[in-house]
Each structure stands twice: as structure tokens, then as C-alpha cells.
From TrEMBL:
Organism: Zizania palustris (Northern wild rice)
One GO location term (cellular component): endomembrane system
Record-given protein name: CASP-like protein
Cellular compartments annotated: Endomembrane system
Lineage, broadest ranks: Eukaryota, Viridiplantae, Streptophyta, Embryophyta, Tracheophyta
UniProt main location, coarse: membrane
Keyword terms of this UniProt record: Membrane, Signal, Transmembrane, Transmembrane helix
Transmembrane segments: 47-67
InterPro entries: DEAL/Modifying_wall_lignin1/2 (IPR009606), DESIGUAL (IPR052222)
Protein family: Belongs to the DESIGUAL family.
Length: 90
């Protein structure tokens, strides 16, 4: 359960980092200043932080899936012997 929470938390933080960085790095609206009269510049490492968190989110999701699927017992593929069909037991 902890892996699922960490996966979702890192995904949300990475998504917000990448979305905010893309919005602040937009060069189309040069006359429109964000947040009043200041022009914000994305700091170095902002996008790499989002990328690292997104890769961590994927890794946590894979670990969670493997841990969840390995806890289940494998299906029994042995043929079943039925009493209703006597010719099936030949």
C-alpha cells in the first residue's frame, strides 16, 4: 500500500513540475507577464527534476505490480477429473 501511495505522490509532483515549467517557459505571450509585471524564468534542473520524478513513479508502479502479482498463487492448469463424464478419465 505504501508503494501505491509513493507512486501516486511522485506522479502528481512530477506532473505539476512539468506542467508549471512548461507554462512558465512559454515564449508566445511575451507581452503578457505572469503574476503581474515580473517575468519568471525556469531555474536549471526544473525539468530534469520532473523527469527524475516521473521515472521514479514508473519504477514504483512496476515494483508495486510485481509485488502484487507475486503474492497471488499461480493458477492450477492440471486437467480436472470429473465424475460426470466417465470417458474423460481415459
Amino acid at each position: 500500500m505504501l508503494l501505491l501511495f509513493l507512486h501516486r505522490a511522485t506522479f502528481i509532483i512530477a506532473f505539476l513540475l512539468l506542467l508549471t515549467g512548461a507554462a512558465l517557459n512559454d515564449q508566445r505571450g511575451e507581452d503578457n507577464m505572469y503574476f503581474g509585471s515580473f517575468c519568471f524564468v525556469v531555474k536549471p534542473g526544473f525539468f530534469s527534476g520532473g523527469a527524475v520524478l516521473s521515472l521514479a513513479s514508473v519504477a514504483l508502479a512496476i515494483i508495486y505490480y510485481v509485488a502484487l502479482s507475486s503474492s497471488k498463487s499461480p493458477p492450477n492448469w492440471a486437467p480436472s477429473r470429473t465424475k460426470a463424464l466417465p470417458w474423460a478419465n481415459l
